[in-house]
User: Fold this.
Amino acid sequence: MSDTVTINIDGKEYQVEAGANLVDAAKWHAGNDIPVFCYHPKMDPVGMCRMCLVELGTPARDRATGDVMLNDDGSPQIRYFPKLQTACTTTVSDGMHIKTNTQEVIDARNDVLEFLLSSHPLDCPICDKGGECPLQNLTMRHGPQSSRMYFEDKQLLEKHYPLGDLIFLDRERCIQCARCVRFQDEVVGDDVLAFHERGRRLQIITDSDPGFDTYFSGNTTDICPVGALTTTDFRFGARPWELNEVPSISPWDAAGENISLSMRLDRDFGGKALIKRVMPRQNERVNEIWISDKTRFGHHFTRSEDRLTQPQMRSDGVLRPSNWAAAIPAMAEALKGGAGDVAAIAGGSVANEDLWELRQLVEGLGGSRLGAWMPTHGGAEIVAEVGVGFGTNLGQLGRGDAILVIASDLEEEAPIWRLRLKQAQDRGAYLVVANARHTRLEDFAIQGARNDKVVEGDVIRYDAGDAVSTLQHLNANHRDIAGRLSAAENLVIVAGAEGLTLSGSKALAQAAANFLIESGHIGRRNNGLLIPLPGANGMGLHYLGYTADATLDIMANPPKALIVAQAELLDDDPAARAWLSQVETIIYANFFDDGISELADFVLPLQTFAERDGSFVNGERRVQRFYTGQGPIGQSLPAWKLFGGLRAALDAGSLQPSAAAVMLGLSENVSAFEGISYKALAQVKREFPDVGGRDLYYGGAAYTNTGGLGVQIPTASDRRKGRRPRRLPAFDQPAAGEDEFLIMPITRLYNRQRNFRPTLILEPRILTPYAIINAEDAAAMGINGGDIIEINAGESSVRARAALSDDISAGAAALPRHLTAEAIPLTITTGSIRKVAEAVAVGD
Amino acid sequence: MAIIGNPKYEARIDRHLAKYETKRSAVMPLLYIAQEEYGWVNPEGIREVAEILNLDPTQVKSIAGFYTMYSEKPKGKYWLQVCTDLPCALQGADEFHAWLKDELDVEEGGTTTDDMFTVEHVMCLAACDKAPMLQCNFHYVENLDQDKMRGLLAKWRQEAAQAANGRG
Amino acid sequence: MHILLRGRDIENIKQLDVYEAHGGFVGMKHALAMTPAEVIDVVKASGLRGRGGAGFPTGVKWSFIPQHEPVKFVTVNADESETGTFKDREIMEENPYQLIEGSLICAYAIQAKAVYIYLRGEFWDIGDQLDECIEALRAKGYIGENIMGSGYDCEVYTHLGAGAYICGEESALLNSLEGYLGQPRVRPPFPAQKGGGLYKEATVVNNVETLANVPYILSEGAGAFKAIGTEQSAGNKIYCVSGHVKRPGNYELPMGATFRELLYQHAGGPLHDDRPLKAMLPSGGSGPIVPLSDEVLDTPMSYEDCANIGTIIGSASIIIMDETVDMTWVASKVTKFFKHESCGKCTPCREGTYWLDKVIDRILDGRGSPDDVKRIADVAENMAGTTLCALGDFAANPIIHTIRHFPDDFAQHVTAQAADG
Ligand SMILES: Cc1cc2nc3c(=O)[nH]c(=O)nc-3n(C[C@H](O)[C@H](O)[C@H](O)COP(=O)(O)O)c2cc1C
Ligand code: SF4
Ligand code: FES
Assistant:
């Protein structure tokens, strides 16, 4: 069977992929925009809106022989359906003929639009979607000049119906296309939206508790073909035609979602460009057309009142406001005083350009220790060897393929990966979730757990801390599962760090690598290892030589001078104070002051991702570029400029004129970046499905990718290296002493991290601090669910509400990072637990 | 009380769950049980059905809203649904329906002040040869006229009073 | 002679022993002695066509089921919601075993795992009675494992709807049975195909009356059945007569009997002797209305002959109206029905029924203009043929055909009125 078929559209022949949807094929190959409302190429067709009606015919066949019947001129006879057919529910077949421009088709489109408009409020001038509204676009193109229906008879329905904290529904505008309902059900797997009633009274509802509350809810506002769904964040915020789209990359996690910053010059922002909203930008390999709500709504920190705006310098023991002209030479002086004992620590979302300048600065001063923050997740070097193969696209995983997610709560750590892997499972991939406790992704791995969907999956539950041995002995102890994973056509393993020490997480990565190598799943696309490293540039840190080990070394043997870039040392680790006080000179560059001003000698304002150019390397090792969107705040600088300026002041180099120039130097010196330039990163090509922002019917979102699809760094195994299993490195398996618990720090997407706190609309959804403990343990200690407990580990202690659970092993507690008021010691592994107060009623 | 853990419904729920290939299929029979327990499909009932079937409550609510035989509002003790569809209307069902509303002094869909009767009209009930007719709490009463109806109303009032006395 | 309404001839045929004493389960025994394919051939040869409305040949429908699929289902359409239809109810109330036997024969012919009888919600008591019948049959080894020693296993269950006409449409029925909204599905895949039926497995959906014919066909032979009725419309049919006749009710007659025979001989003629009959809806609200002319009265009631007079026999729910009836009011009644029952899934039906109803109300109120009449005819034409399921077409029919046949009935409401646009 050939992979293409020939179809005839309005008299012209086209070769199209066999099995393609007719709407997609007509659009892609013939540039013929068959109008649609309910159809969306990312979801199953439902044929509801009837906008896509066409005349459809197929070659007539002789009943007896099955042969195609021919006309006198030898061409096949085409038998047309008596009624118009919906193109969106039609799969192309060889010899198919369609007509999209006959009077009958034109009339049908006109009629459907007239029907839709008959109960649609014509409030375009005040509608958020106005200007990028498929209904508006299609009405201009295909609609009636005037309506025969009576407008004074229109229904009056609720216009501000909250579906949850984030999304509002305008019931008058809704055209019942069910895209939002289907998105939540099919794409996300949380069927929290549905229709209520029927006929003309049909409307969208949620009856979940809390309401429409998923990590992906904002995407519904993009795919809604009218202005019925709006976000609390953007509602009435701006008119789409006033907005200027700037390509960018999510600063939050390893997935590296491509985004578009919708900018407007704003009077309240000194006439500078301001982010009005964050939209997804299509990159089929990375995030397709979806982003998480954290990425969409989390931009507020870039304009927080609390941002550092001015360099500060310590003089006479007091930190005082200063300026760059004074601060740079003073810092240069201080660094020289470091006498070669200079080190740096960089956070997980520092851009490559910054890391490169910082590295040159430290090395130029004779230092060598480059620390990665936080020093909790290891394995980046193993990803560089056996990470997912060059050209991987999680969107292609499906039947015959397998996925293992171990020691990670993926929905919390990298939501888009969880979304895409769940969809891979819907396409038939076999999903195994292994963890020491229940996680959201597990719900999909359990057969029929939800909605009776038939899916392929298994769950492995191990005792806290046993991730490495579980994977190491998978073949012996879970023979069936291991067998299915090994035999899979393609296998992707996602290895996290939940419940593990740094060395434990490296060992887990190695165990995963070994499994992949032994089962032959490396060095090929759609195979290999993924690690949800914290931050947007965990892999960039690795490629530029920043390691967690160096951080541990710095912590153990503090240097004379330390440069800290975008790392909230004190916020993340109360123990940092002790060793930081032994450092003579601390240069601290960040967006906020996390309390380090007490100790630092220089506190310097940096620009966020939104204000500058730069690049990140995502977990799939794709180097992706972001562009300057928002106007700068105060005197803040991009970090590369600060470090480059310091180098110039030290006569150790010259300040590069631009981030692009920094990248050039970087690509010449760091082999992983060989051949990468801003130009290469900016390359785009037409992506399927074609859902661009200028499009007539998927409009309403700045989807078109104009900023670049990025360039993936090949792994060693892509280059035919590192293809033999290695011994697991030695690692410390934490052991709880008598009356002690194993403490597993875990990740929550919405937390009280410094950069996230200014996102006030998500604040109500940040959980009160809690710790999950085994129900039997709790009973033995007289702890009830909701009681306040204190967890003591070494010097520090935190308080949280007890959450009891059966599926965490005895003697273990899971403690979310960044939820508690007090910082949790970073390297916490064990501690004691005691009850300090009875549960109080919520609201007290 | 509740449906979950209520011995009255245990066997019935189990029987329905056993009937189908998927749990979700049992949503309709379970909604009837919720309606029986609470007199209408109230939020509590929705949540219980969702819990039994491992569905999101939104899905259950959606089903409850689609079908006319689930009431999402409280009804009178006797829920009278008069068929006024064409065949019955040809036999005077519209007039009968209007008279009944007058007799009980209620609006369309309304409930008498003593919470005894709710009156509404419905589409064809497959009893067109026995018009006028109505359905009382899902049981057919056919070949009606005003006299017969007055007798029935009196009988139902009496039954309700007896039931109340029996309990009190 | 009754083949279906045998409750009228044989007392207590709703008891299993009586049913068996009168030939019950002979057809099933014959079927079990044949291969499934042979059973399908017999039903094909009988010429039986679906009684749910569309008249699709039943044996052909069964033969679409892919034999190699391991799991298959039979769904009995007992939703009986078409305005004016009350035949399936009588079969199930008075002759329930015959329906169950017919369903089991169908199940055997396609090797189904189970039969689900989807009853409209109001058939609460009938559901209870059928459940009792099922238990009685299970006790005798007619349902469950190794039916009648044949090695074939099959379960039978009832399921109650809850008030939605659309659930009579087969794909909406399947959605409803699966616990989803009772809205129609996109086809293909069709119910008979893998992916399109119940729980995505190949499924036969047949009407109650259709299946109730099957035991007779298997016990008496395809020829006996084929001999009744006309060339293209074999067997008996139950006609549900309602409206302005003296004796409304169900009448079982061979297909091909004339409307005149049914209405005058059996149903007793006009309710009021001094009021001649004016019009007839031969298939409830969904089929085109026809004036009761002599030509129409003398038309044989068969699939083929009804097409010649511009209507359908459909479910044979025959609603009769005498000269006192205003057809604008009829159009309004029927439109209100479809507006109430539109599932809302597709645009033309959801919006169209809503607006048609509004405009007819306006006309009936005396606020309409002649343009309004044209407007609703146009809107109805726009709906027809563009909807996801046939309900949209059904909803267009009453408007289009009442206006076509009875323009004066509309004109009287609008002539007094100046056209106000
Ligand atoms: C809107 C609509 C309502 C229907 N209602 C019924 C019904 O109540 N009972 C029925 O048997 N068929 C009904 N049908 C027809 C069914 O879809 C289907 O054709 C029938 O059950 C097939 O059975 P048969 O082949 O035995 O006739 C309806 C069809 C439509 C489009
Ligand atoms: S025609 Fe009516 S009933 Fe059928 S799918 Fe469309 S809206 Fe639903
Ligand atoms: S019916 Fe095809 S796009 Fe809606």
